Amino acid sequence: MILATDLDGTFLAGDAAARHRLYRLVDQHPGIRLIFITGRGLEAVMPLLSDPAIPRPDVVVCDVGATVVDGHTLQPLQPLQSMIDAHWPGEQVVAAAMRPFAALQRQDVPQERRCSYFCDPDTLAPLRAQIQAAAQALGCDVLYSADRYLDILPPDTDKGRTLAALARLLELPRDRILVAGDTLNDLSMYTAGFRGVCVGESEPALTAATAALGHTFHADAPGCGGILEAIEHFGLLASDDPYLHPPAQARADGADLVMVYHRLPFDEVLQDGVLVQRPPRSPNGIIPSLLSFFDGGQKGSWVAWGIDDPKRGPFQTHLAVDAVRYPTLTAARVPLSKQEVDIFYKRFSKEAFWPMLHVFWERARFREDDWQVFLQVNRKFAESTAAEAAHGATVWIHDYNLWMVPGTLRELRPDLKIAFFHHTYFPSADVFNVVPWRREIIGSLLSCDYIGFHIPRQVENFVDVVRGAMPAERLAWESCAPRFLTYGCAVGLDTMTTRLRVGDREIALGAHPVGTDLRRIHAVLARGDVRNDIFKLRREIGARKLVLSVERLDYTKGTLAKLEAFERLLEQHPDRLGKVTLLMICVPAAREMTVYRTLQNQIEQAVGRINGRFSRLDWTPVRFFAQALPFEEVVAHYAAAQVMWITPLRDGLNLVAKEFVATQGIEGSSGVLVLSEFAGAAAELKGAVLTNPHDPADLTAGLLQALSMPDDEATGRMRQLFDSVEYYDVDRWGREFLEAVRTSHPEG
Q1: 288-317 per-position pLDDT tens digit
Q2: Using CA of residue 688, residue 693, residue 697, residue 700, what is the dihedral sign?
Q3: Alpha-carbon 603 to chain mean position
Q4: Does this model's pTM top 0.90?
Q5: How far apart are CA 1 and CA 362, in angstroms?
Q6: Would 241 disulfide with which of 237, 368, 621, 685, CB 3.0-4.6 Å?
């Protein structure tokens, strides 16, 4: 069966259930081919090709039959396109011939090989003969629609004749072609002799014009519902065809809340050949916060990958997370091979998307083979999630590794409320658009009901990308103040979009900076061994000021520029020699991530150079540790430092800044936070000394300001910072995000 369908009012219309049923049928049935045949220009069709809910057509016929392209490559379908081109005199020639008809208004829509106009019907009627003559003089045809629209087209070009030529070219059996339309613009498809359906609520002129055509069916249901009626009416698929029946409904015992995160809420280790669970080693405060939503007995699932390796024994798809604390929460493990994890996460995510997201697009390496693995892994996550969720459940998906999950999940389970939180920075369109698959990614994200980012700037960057990819309407927005800085830093903004309409979908948006886990830091600071570590550090530093830097080894963190700025401080202010120590804790990358080796060598050389130039017998200016310290030791360093120096070139948020503030606030200390204004946290942490890491002089000046700051000013700044961090902790972040999801579509 070949479905050749108009779009507006036909394939894009009808109730949601009918659209989902037809789209699923076309997308999954191996015996159905799809042709879009529309008056839209190709440019206006392209956004539909990015929507994962809409099946990808095999052929796209645009401009009322004047443009014919392959639906997958978007390349012209030859020799058919060349035959049409050969008879088109050109846009400017046609426009000049129509210019004397002052009553005609050119339509401002994308189009090729046609010129479209509209005119008041009473004014147009007496001009028809003259317009026809002018078009014929150019060798063109005129096509009218609704008595007020007209297209000047190449000769013998309309939907019906182009479809007939396409059928001959591709050797499509005419008796298996079903055409679908709803306006007089589609009439030529029916008069060309194809079986056809005028869907419900079609234009009366089309219904009247096709009334006597025995091969045309007039459906009751509009849009997709009418097409489904016609498939049954003409017997184009067997009544027992398994693809005709809707998929099974959700399990009655499914989860009400599903977390979809690349990591499990526990670590898995092999112990004497047995896979055992241990508390996560990473100081990730988000995981405990997400787990807290299952304290009250809400039935839930946590979808994450598990390594499928025969050496680990039979793969277990479901495990209890913690039978005592979370008896109603199940870990649903997505089976991935080690190779899939290496490609999907360690290589592709980090070598393609990570540099692009942080505006280092020239470092990005895009491989089609890796993208295919990325799609496969995301589909596995979506299928596992669809199997876990109860009817109408809320699904919360996390971060860019799982960009393609929403689109597939919406296709599998249209009943779900899908929320997405983007933990990393989201760049503007001029950067994001370097991604070869940008339309597919945006199309998937727009399948969500709610999308959250850290700060308003990232929300607006996303909106910027969407508006460059497809027609979008900004439905609602709000002021960013007083919660966020507006004009006070590089990532500040005054207003933020909170709702978009794209096609027939509305997507709610919000800014939700992740908070820190104050309970955990309180508990760490109360430990005797940590108090002892703090005492030792303070005694070791003595009267000197300790400047602390804690970050992962990554070119986005600005580590090398920071070292060079510290070197300039010592050069330009010799009175600081022996009075300040920079302690750098730089967590190395995994050994297989070779992209960071050159950077690590450069950093180590800079440390050696600075210490070689300025060291004294009793003082080493830079103490550098290329290792991951336990969270307890990091907190001890937070407490002992007078200055926290965080200078990423670009960062989604930066939780280290908040952990430092939390530690200092709990301790009643007055350390100074020097923070890059390109970190997301800069938009909310009022009281920090903001610095531009791209400006060498400003980097040095920011550090000098912190080292020279009077105690009363430092105390006031820390009080302001701690008030914010204490109130907006990680628990509040989680609660506010889910509440925003719940209220984003009250009718749902």
Answers
A1: 888 888 877 778 999 999 998 887 778 889
A2: positive
A3: 33
A4: no
A5: 46
A6: 237
